[in-house]
Amino acid sequence: MKLKNEIHAIAIDFPRYGYRRITIELHRRGFETNHKVVYELMKIDNLLCIKKQFVPKTTDSEHNLPVYPNLARDLVNTGINQLCAADITYIRLVREFIYLAVIIDVFSRKCIGWKLSRDIDAKLALAALDMALADRKDMGISNFIHHSDQGVQYAPWKYVDRLKENGIKISMSRKGNPYDHIVRRYCMYNKSNIVLIICRKTYTFRHVQELLFWV
Fold this sequence. Notes:
The protein is an alpha/beta fold. The chain has two domains: about 1-45; about 85-215, Ribonuclease H-like superfamily/Ribonuclease H (Nucleotidyltransferase, domain 5, 2-Layer Sandwich), CATH 3.30.420.10. Helix content is about 40%, strand content about 15%. The chain has helices spanning about 1-15, 20-30, 35-45, 120-135, 155-165, 180-185, 190-200, 205-215; strands spanning about 85-90, 95-105, 110-115, 145-150, 170. A five-stranded mixed β-sheet has the order 3-2-1-4-5. Helix 2 packs across helix 3. The protein is elongated and about 80 Å long. The N and C termini lie far apart (about 60 Å).
């Protein structure tokens, strides 16, 4: 009982300590015990630390760049080349996280641009945009609306200028409003879903890149 009380006291004093560090602290305080006993006692009393799993943040809207109103919210989409949606997702591999930027035509749900990278930055989003522009330029994109979140990848001058140069209207979801994200989340192309399902933390960056090429 004295050992158990001491474990509780250490856990209160050092809330980030796991059973091994608490065992060391117990030894320092004169208790003769091993980590297996400490582990079992902590498990019974639900004192074991649970490591918080790291999840990459793909949207950073805390910036001073211009943002644009949501033009997609009330749009009645009747055909291709009217509305495209851009988004970035992460893929967990064995040794790293990689990032996939996609742009889809909302009406057809066809992926018209994508880029895979180890870095989540404006270059990633811009590469996907350039691919989309090359895919649709001959079809006429002057009335296209480009919809995204307010993330720093979609707000830089270079990205915005590329859209404006091609006569594309800019639409952004309102920050913190989940209903505004329905267009992008609902239409997120199967390309990212397939990668997330097949990878299962086993593929390398090169394998995923090859997989995407053939999807």
